[in-house]
Amino acid sequence: MVSSYRCEEADLTRAVAESARLTDKALERFLSSGGALGDAGGTALWQSLWGALQLTTRQRAALLAGQAPPGGPEPTSVAAFRRLRSLLLASFWLVPAFELAHGLRSSGRVEQSLVLWTGIVDGIKEVMPSSSLHATNALQRALFSAEGGRPELEVRASVAVAARVVEAAYGGGPDMVECLVSSWLRGHRGTPAAAQFAGVLSWLRQKQGGTASEGAGK
After folding, report:
1. Which among 44, 74, 170, 179 has most CB atoms closer than 10 A?
2. What is the pLDDT of residues 48-71, one digit of tens each?
3. What's the whole-model pTM score?
4. CA distances from 12 to 27, 112, 126, 139 (A)
């Protein structure tokens, strides 16, 4: 007989925070040790992330705190550090974070859920890039940005990212994006969120149409 366990929001919140803390601790220990990987050190993946080793302890700490790293490190090193962290977060932070994000959104706390969505999408991007799972979660982040009443530029950025992932996964451009979110659009018909999302889709079509016209004219 399988026993059931009720996970309260407080339990899930602690699980998300603790898994992030342990991930960051492991990341710092790994980078402080010089990133020794043995035979794996020659893989293409590690070569693309090697720049993270160029950051100092203070620079890494600043990035983890959401601050600008002192000393002006190379942007490629910063990007490599963020990618490596996302890769590690995907190991066991991702699942509780996903559950918590959906719970927050379903209880009307969309703004709080959005704090988690960037990390969720970035983690999936590292382990399953351009997959249906990547596309689904990128679209959800874009939809929830509209639901949360985020600024137009932020919603546009989220939709543009989602559209690139959808294009890589399925093709079809903005039309495919609209198809995939059609159920959400119907369910939110008449709301500011739906109007904003539809407007951003129109903007994206115009933008892509202008780019295509420019390319054809060259």
Report:
1. 170
2. 788 888 899 999 999 999 899 998
3. 0.81
4. 22, 14, 24, 24
